[in-house]
Amino acid sequence: MWRRHTLKSHYDVIIIGGGIHGLATAYYLAKNHGITNVAVVDKGYLGGGGSGRNTAIVRSNYLTPEGVAFYDRSLELYNTMATDLNLNVMFSRRGHLTLAHTDSALRTMNWRAEVNKLAGVDSSVIGPQEVKELAPSLDVSTGTRYPILGALYHPPGGIVRHDAVVWGYARAADHLGVELHQETEVLDILVTGGEGPDGKGHGGKVTGIRTNRGDISSPVVVNCTAGWASLISNMAGVPLPITTHPLQAAVTEPCKVFLPTVVVSGSLHVYVSQTDRGELVFGASVDPVGTYRVNGTLEFIEELAGHVLELMPGISKMRLLRQWSGLCDMTPDYSPVMGYTQVAGYLVDVGWGTYGFKAGPVSGETMAESIAIGRNADLIASFGIERFTEGDLVGEKGAAAVGH
Amino acid sequence: MIVVPCPNCGPRNASDLRNCGETVVRPNPSTTSLREWRTYLYIRENPAGWLTETWYCRNGCRRYFTIERNTSTNEIRENNS
């Protein structure tokens, strides 16, 4: 699918992180801007982090106008991705239900629906009966502990095969001349002229990176990592407003297809969809204790099973096949941190929390544009790192980790 | 389950307590600059290794205390500083 290369001593752009974000950035740099002397370096293998661990849901029914515009562009790119990359990414546009179990959740759903409609996104609040028609396996009776009072219905949402997205971007970037270097761990980011120790930090300028395969020089280094974003960024002297939490997910044995939409419940901290193979894929909110350790826990499975059965009592006999977890870089406002930083030539595309997969394509497109034009692209203007020193946060309560 | 040693209640499951995150020094609000204040509010070191953090004994004695935890292994040692 892609070639191996010996590491050169210089590239025009180095991208750290070979997941969807890093590969998409490389692809759009080459395709849209003709910048092909680009290296993507990853300490493991391509798509081994969040890109292969997420629950593959895409949607654009966010709460802030900035978020809606951004994720809607991503959905557009997902719509045509199979053709653009000449690889079947199995995008299943099946509709997305966000359930409301409380009056306050219903209020947020109405708020989101109005923001979405204003932005031209297909999104509306529906009642329990319509929910039942869309997903008959859901228990919409009123005697339950968390009755379904309604839902935000978003028909353009769906699921995508996440591995295929990684392979598609990697192959397409490779064809355009980008070099993909796996098992290449970044040990340090080389910066001169900054205020901090070793010339790093504010006012500095990137000159390259140090890897386990040698030093590489480059005027532009982009941090597209998740889980390790703070560690990589600290190498450049750019501390981040991020705490890393694991998010656990699980999948059942396959069974006959019965769940036609993606179902999400913020109050019950669960989202579920059925793959084309028939497995139910469950995700949850992030673990409450920040850690880099990605082992699964029994209490997660217990809680998840309890909540899923409150929604769908009919699947009590189904068996779980496996569980896994991935690392989520949580920011205080549930929005990402993107673009240029206080170190010249060092860009970030981090803080992707629980929404990195659905944003992959548009992040690549806008990061590539930002690199090419020398300033942050308009679509990501509000996601800059300076918002945390200027106090101008983008509170995204439409994110998956946010309970209502 | 992470077991957290509350200085008053002894070892408790992490779910009995609230993790308040990395312990950060609060600047004096009447003399600090906005930039310093916001750094205190938002910026975290987020290390993969030993971290000094604050816990709240939510379902027990309701005491706030700090411990050191290795975020790569979740090993805990009591904070002697």
List keywords for this structure.
heterodimer; A: 404 residues; alpha/beta; 6-stranded mixed beta sheet; 24% strand; B: 81 residues; mainly beta; 4-stranded antiparallel beta sheet
Write structural notes for this entry:
The complex is a heterodimer of chains A (404) and B (81). Helix content of chain A is 28%, strand content 24%. Chain A has 404 residues and is of the alpha/beta class. In chain A, the strands form four sheets. An eight-stranded mixed sheet of chain A has the order 5-6-4-14-15-16-13-17, with helices on both faces. In chain A, strand 14 and strand 15 (270-274) form a beta hairpin. The model of chain A has no long low-confidence stretch (mean pLDDT 95). Chain B contains one helix and six strands; from the N terminus they run E-E-E-H-E-E-E. A four-stranded antiparallel sheet of chain B has the order 3-4-5-6, with no helix packed on it. Chain B has a two-stranded antiparallel sheet with strand order 1-2. Chain B is globular, with a radius of gyration of 14 Å. The mean pLDDT of chain B is 93. Chain A binds chain B through residues 228, 230-231, 234, 239-244, 288-293, 297-299, 332, 388-391, and chain B through 1-2, 14-15, 18-19, 21-22, 34-35, 38-39, 41-48, 69, 71-74.
